[in-house]
Design brief:
36% strand; 4-stranded antiparallel beta sheet; 3 helices; 8-stranded antiparallel beta sheet; binds calcium ion; disordered N terminus; single chain
C-alpha cells in the first residue's frame, strides 16, 4: 500500500503571472500552510510544425494522483505533450490533466481526436473537450487500451482547444491510466 502524499496542483497561468508583473524565475513557489504548489511558468513544451498542430502543446491544469509520490517521473504532466513517445503521466482515481492545443481542433466527418495510453491493463479514464477551457463536455465512453478515438460531434461542439483526461479506476496496475499523448486527427 502506498503512503498517502499531499497532491500538488498547477494553477492556471493567469492565476500566477498577472500581466503587470515582471517575469519570474522558473522556480516553484510553495504556499506556506497549504498543499498547493504553484509553478510560475506554464507547463509547455516546444514543438514545431506538424507536431505542434497535431498534439497538445501545453498543460493548462493538472491534479496529480493523490496516492503517488509527486517526484516520480510518471507524475510529470508534460509527458503527455507532443507525439506518443512511451513517456506517460499516470492518472489514478482523483487525478486529471487539462491539455491545451496550439490551435482549434475542428469537428469534421468521423473521429477527430485520439488518446494514447501505454499498457493495456484495463485502466480507464474519462475524456472531455472544451472550446474555452472552462466548460467541458465529457464523452460517455471512457478511454481504455492503447488508443481511443472520439468524435467531437458526440460532444456537440464545433471545435475544441482543450482536452481533459481524468482517472476513474484502478482496474489496471497502479497507479491508473498511463496517458502518453493526445492527437488531433484533423
Ligand atoms: Ca467529427
Ligand atoms: Ca508522452
Amino acid at each position: 500500500m502506498s503512503t498517502f502524499l499531499p497532491s500538488s496542483r498547477l494553477a492556471r497561468l493567469s492565476d500566477v503571472t498577472p500581466a503587470d508583473e515582471p517575469p519570474r524565475s522558473s522556480s516553484t513557489r510553495i504556499l506556506v500552510g497549504s498543499t498547493v504548489a504553484l509553478l510560475s511558468v506554464l507547463q509547455t513544451a516546444c514543438f514545431q510544425g506538424d507536431d505542434r498542430d497535431r498534439h497538445a502543446s501545453a498543460v493548462d491544469d493538472y491534479l496529480a494522483t493523490p496516492f503517488i509520490d509527486p517526484n516520480v517521473a510518471f507524475a510529470e504532466p508534460r509527458r503527455a505533450l507532443g507525439p506518443p513517445d512511451g513517456r506517460t503521466v499516470a492518472l489514478g482515481v482523483g487525478a486529471f490533466i487539462v491539455l491545451r492545443f496550439f490551435r482549434d481542433i475542428p469537428d469534421g466527418p468521423g473521429v477527430d481526436l485520439r488518446v494514447y495510453e501505454v499498457g493495456d491493463d484495463g485502466a480507464e479514464a474519462r475524456v472531455a473537450v472544451s472550446e474555452d477551457g472552462d466548460a467541458f463536455i465529457e464523452f460517455a465512453r471512457p478511454a481504455s487500451g492503447t488508443t481511443t478515438t472520439y468524435d467531437l460531434e458526440e460532444a456537440g461542439i464545433p471545435a475544441a482547444r482543450f482536452v481533459r483526461v481524468r482517472g476513474i479506476d484502478d482496474a489496471g496496475e497502479e497507479p491508473g491510466f498511463d496517458l502518453d499523448s493526445v492527437e488531433a486527427l484533423r
